[in-house]
C-alpha cells in the first residue's frame, strides 16, 4: 500500500481510492491488509476467502483470524462465496459479515446457492464443463465494479461524481454526534436530547406508535438502528436547521478572523502583543483590552465545554479537560502565532488545531502507547517553539554574514 500510494501520481492512480482484491488464501492476505495494515486500502474485495482462524491454520500455525481484527478503521468490503464450498466453509464469509456489521462498516455480500471453491469468474473456460456453477455466479465481477463506483464515485464529465455509499452506515464510531448517528446513540445522550428538544417535540407529533400500548420512548428504542436523519426525512421533518449546526465552527472562525484583521479592536490587540509599552504610550487602554481578551477567551472556552458535553453526555470535574491546555498551546504555536505576541493570523490557529489533531490520529492509528503518544506530541511542540525562537536569530546571522 505504501508503494502504491507513494507512486500514485506517477502511475496515474488516485491514492485515496485504492482497493485490494484476493481469492481463497489470497483473500486472507487482502483481508489482513484491510484489517491489520498500518496503511489500509480504501476498499477490499474478498472472494471465497480464508478468513476464520480455524481455516487459516491450514495455511500456517500463526495465521490470524481476520474477523477478529475488524475494527472501526476497516474499509468497506465486497464479499462473495459459494454455499456449498467444501474447501473454505461458508462460515468464513458469514463471520466476516458479522464483524463488519458490529462496527457499522458498509459491505455487500453475494452467497451463491451452489458451486465449487475457486469458481473464479463463473465461466466454464476456467472450470470443467461438468462443474455445476450457477450462471449468475459470473455477475460478481460486474457487481463489484458497480459497488466500487457507488463507494468512490463514477467518472463524469467534470471528474468523479459524488459517492452514494458511505464507508460506515452511521456515525456511531465517531467521537461526536451528528444527524447520521443512530437513534439509540443519540437517545442515550441526555445532553443531545436537550439540544434537540424542539425537534423531538415535532417527532412526538408525527411518529405514531406501532400499537396503542407503546410510548414514544418505546418507539425510539424500536427504531434505534435508524439514523436520526433517515427518520426525520421519512417523517417529513426539516433537517436543514440541524445541519446548519455543523457550520457554527466555520462561522465563529470567520468572525474572529475578521475582527482580528479588519477592526480597530483587532489592531489594538496586535499592538499590545507587539510592544506593551509602546501601545500604552499611544493611548490604548491596555488593561481594558486585556480584560476583554480574557473575557472572549472565557466565553469560547465555555462554548467548547458545552460542545464537549453535548458530544459525550457527561463530564468528570476532576479529570475532564485535563492536559487540554497543551492542545490549545500547540494549536496556537503550530498555527504560526508568535509566542512573544504581535504576529500571526487567526486562521492559522484553525489549521494548527487541525494539524495537531491529525498528528494525534496518526499516533493512535499506529497503536502506540499513550505515554509515547504524549511524548511525541510534546516533542513536536518543543521543536516548533524552538524554530519560532531560534529561527529569526539564525536568519539574522545569515543576513549579516552575507
Structure write-up:
A hairpin with a 2-residue loop joins strand 5 and strand 6 (159-160). The chain has helices spanning 2-6, 25-36, 53-56, 91-102, 139-152, 183-187, 190-195, 197-206, 216-222, 228-234, 240-243, 248-262, 264-274, 276-281, 286-312, 324-334, 346-365, 370-401; strands at 19-23, 43-47, 77-82, 107-112, 155-156, 159-160. With 402 residues, it is of the alpha/beta class. The chain folds into four domains: 2-160, Rossmann fold (3-Layer(aba) Sandwich), CATH 3.40.50.1820; 183-244, no CATH class; 263-316; 323-402, no CATH class. Helix content is 52%, strand content 6%. It contains 18 helices and six strands. It starts with a helix and ends with a helix.
Q: Layout of SSEs?
A:
Layout: H1 2-6, E1 19-23, H2 25-36, E2 43-47, H3 53-56, E3 77-82, H4 91-102, E4 107-112, H5 139-152, E5 155-156, E6 159-160, H6 183-187, H7 190-195, H8 197-206, H9 216-222, H10 228-234, H11 240-243, H12 248-262, H13 264-274, H14 276-281, H15 286-312, H16 324-334, H17 346-365, H18 370-401
Helix pairs in contact: 12-13, 13-15, 16-17, 16-18, 17-18
Task: Look up the CATH topology of the largest domain.
Answer: Rossmann fold
Order of helices and strands: HEHEHEHEHEEHHHHHHHHHHHHH
Give the total of beta strands. Answer: 6
Biggest sheet character: 4 strands, parallel
Beta fraction of the residues?
A: 5-15%
Structural class: alpha/beta
- The overall pLDDT, averaged over residues, is 81
Q: What would you call the shape?
A: globular
CATH-wise, what's the superfamily of the largest domain?
A: Alpha/Beta hydrolase fold, catalytic domain
**Ends: how far apart?**
46 Å
**Strand arrangement in the largest pleated sheet:** 1-2-3-4
Low-pLDDT segments, ≥5 res:
none
Amino acid at each position: 500500500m505504501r508503494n502504491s500510494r507513494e507512486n500514485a501520481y506517477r502511475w496515474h492512480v488516485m491514492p485515496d481510492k485504492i482497493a485490494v482484491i484476493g481469492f481463497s488464501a489470497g483473500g486472507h492476505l487482502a483481508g489482513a491488509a484491510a484489517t491489520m495494515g498500518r496503511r489500509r486500502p480504501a476498499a477490499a474485495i474478498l472472494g471465497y476467502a480464508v478468513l476464520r482462524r480455524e481455516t487459516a491454520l491450514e495455511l500456517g500455525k500463526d495465521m490470524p483470524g481476520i474477523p477478529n481484527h475488524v475494527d472501526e478503521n476497516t474499509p468497506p468490503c465486497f464479499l462473495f462465496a459459494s454455499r456449498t464450498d467444501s474447501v473454505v466453509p461458508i462460515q468464513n464469509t458469514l463471520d466476516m459479515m458479522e464483524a463488519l456489521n458490529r462496527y457499522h462498516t458498509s459491505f455487500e455480500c453475494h452467497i451463491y446457492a451452489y458451486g465449487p471453491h475457486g469458481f473464479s469468474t463463473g465461466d466454464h473456460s476456467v472450470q470443467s464443463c461438468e462443474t455445476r456453477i450457477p450462471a449468475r455466479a459470473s455477475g460478481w465481477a460486474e457487481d463489484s465494479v458497480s459497488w466500487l463506483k457507488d463507494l468512490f464515485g463514477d467518472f463524469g464529465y467534470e471528474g468523479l461524481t459524488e459517492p452514494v455509499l458511505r464507508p460506515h452506515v452511521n456515525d456511531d464510531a465517531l467521537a461526536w454526534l451528528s444527524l447520521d448517528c443512530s437513534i439509540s446513540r443519540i437517545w442515550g445522550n441526555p445532553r443531545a436530547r436537550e439540544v434537540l428538544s424542539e425537534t423531538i417535540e415535532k417527532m412526538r407529533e408525527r411518529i405514531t406508535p406501532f400499537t396503542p400500548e407503546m410510548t414514544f420512548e418505546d418507539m425510539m428504542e424500536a427504531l434505534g438502528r435508524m439514523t436520526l436523519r433517515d427518520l426525520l426525512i421519512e417523517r417529513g421533518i426539516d433537517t436543514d436547521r440541524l445541519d446548519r449546526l455543523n457550520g457554527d465552527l466555520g462561522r465563529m472562525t470567520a468572525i474572529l478572523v475578521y475582527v482580528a484583521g479588519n477592526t480597530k479592536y483587532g489592531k489594538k490587540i496586535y499592538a499590545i502583543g507587539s510592544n506593551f509599552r509602546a501601545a500604552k504610550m499611544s493611548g490604548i487602554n491596555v488593561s481594558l483590552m486585556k480584560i476583554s481578551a480574557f473575557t472572549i477567551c472565557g466565553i469560547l472556552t465555555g462554548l467548547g465545554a458545552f460542545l464537549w458535553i453535548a458530544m459525550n453526555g457527561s463530564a468528570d470535574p476532576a479529570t475532564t479537560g485535563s492536559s487540554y491546555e497543551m492542545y490549545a498551546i500547540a494549536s496556537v504555536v503550530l498555527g504560526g502565532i508568535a509566542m512573544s505576541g504581535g504576529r500571526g493570523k487567526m486562521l492559522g490557529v484553525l489549521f494548527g488545531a487541525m494539524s495537531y489533531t491529525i498528528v494525534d490520529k496518526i499516533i493512535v492509528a499506529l497503536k502506540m502507547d499513550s505515554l509515547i503518544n504524549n511524548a511525541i506530541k510534546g516533542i513536536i511542540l518543543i521543536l516548533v517553539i524552538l524554530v519560532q525562537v531560534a529561527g529569526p536569530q539564525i536568519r539574522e546571522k545569515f543576513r549579516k554574514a552575507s
